[in-house]
Amino acid sequence: MTAVRFSSLCRSSHQVLLPLLSSSCCALQLLINAIAGVGCAGFNTILGPVRPIFLSVLMYATAMSFPGPKMNGLGKWCSNTAITFFLALMPELLHIWNNNSWRRLASQVTTATTANDAKVGATVELDIPSMGCAACINKIDSTITGSNGVLSGRSWLNDDPKGGRARFDIAANSIDDVNEIIKSVVEKVDGSGFPCRVETVDVVDKRPV
Question: Residue 13: its pLDDT value, please?
Answer without folding.
Answer: 58
